Backbone:
């Protein structure tokens, strides 16, 4: 076990900052415990690792890490906690956004520096409900991942994501059993086959990184944006092609529940350079259009 204390000079809310890394309430790589700790497991460049972070009374963060990648995890802790993010660069242009900014002073944009661990669950979320994607992520990690180092593996039953080779060896029937169609499974396999090249994208500018990711067939603008938001803490990489986001932004800023991607981008234009942060704050405001149609139909292909 290794440890580190990270003093924070500006407000930091661990839950808000790290929550984008959690893929559902039963994510095997992410846990919160009653003592206020946030646990996370990753496959770092130095090997599997588990990280536990807690906030102290003076606002500092205490971190402990286990596993081969513990030192790497701790070295990246400032980025994970949003040190490379600059919330002061954001200027609210709407009353709702200003109100949410005031109520969420500890929100920072996390930067993981790890591509595959954000890319694969984003691929799983393509064109299905989040519940279906979360279920697939959980089943695949429980079967093909490995126990997280330290107490998290046994006490919290956390898992570390499989290595790239293991992803390529998952048989078709196991993808099917997890409810993952052939298109998404094939995209994940193609990404895993060029994992080293994709991980290089973490050191690129966000736009260049998205271009690198989209060279893989099956990875488009929606998936690359969802990935780069996490890997780079990219404040301007807003998600397009989403089923709900344009309507939420349109309703919140212009009372337009039928807004398209084009409408959304126009509404977010005053936040150029900070459009993802603006969209995130809008989502956190809790303002969304009332439902007038059923949710996306759940189709569990594992039952076919």
Residues:
């Amino acid at each position: 076990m290794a440890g580190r204390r990270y003093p924070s000079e500006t407000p930091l809310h661990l839950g808000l900052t790290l929550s984008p890394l959690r893929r559902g309430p039963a994510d095997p790589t992410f846990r919160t415990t009653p003592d206020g700790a946030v646990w996370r497991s990753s496959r770092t460049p130095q090997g599997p690792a588990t990280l536990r972070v807690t906030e102290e009374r003076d606002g500092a963060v205490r971190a402990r890490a286990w596993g081969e990648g513990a030192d790497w995890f701790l070295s990246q802790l400032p980025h994970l906690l949003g040190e490379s993010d600059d919330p002061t660069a954001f200027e609210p242009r709407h009353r709702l956004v200003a109100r949410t900014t005031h109520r969420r002073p500890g929100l920072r944009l996390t930067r993981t520096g790890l591509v595959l661990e954000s890319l694969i669950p984003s691929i799983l979320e393509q064109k299905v409900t989040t519940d279906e994607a979360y279920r697939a992520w959980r089943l695949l990690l429980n079967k093909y991942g490995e126990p997280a180092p330290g107490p998290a593996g046994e006490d919290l039953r956390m898992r570390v994501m499989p290595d790239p080779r293991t992803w390529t060896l998952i048989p078709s029937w196991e993808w099917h059993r997890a409810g993952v169609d052939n298109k998404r499974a094939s995209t994940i396999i193609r990404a895993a086959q060029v994992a080293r090249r994709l991980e290089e994208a973490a050191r690129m500018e966000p736009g260049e990184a998205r271009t690198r990711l989209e060279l893989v067939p099956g990875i488009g603008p929606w998936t690359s944006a969802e990935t780069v938001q996490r890997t780079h803490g990219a404040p301007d990489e807003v998600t397009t092609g989403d089923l709900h986001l344009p309507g939420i932004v349109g309703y919140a800023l212009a009372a337009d529940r039928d807004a398209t991607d084009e409408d959304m981008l126009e509404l977010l234009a005053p936040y150029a350079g900070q459009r993802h942060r603006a969209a995130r704050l809008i989502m956190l405001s809790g303002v969304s259009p009332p439902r007038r149609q059923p949710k996306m139909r759940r189709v569990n292909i594992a039952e076919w």
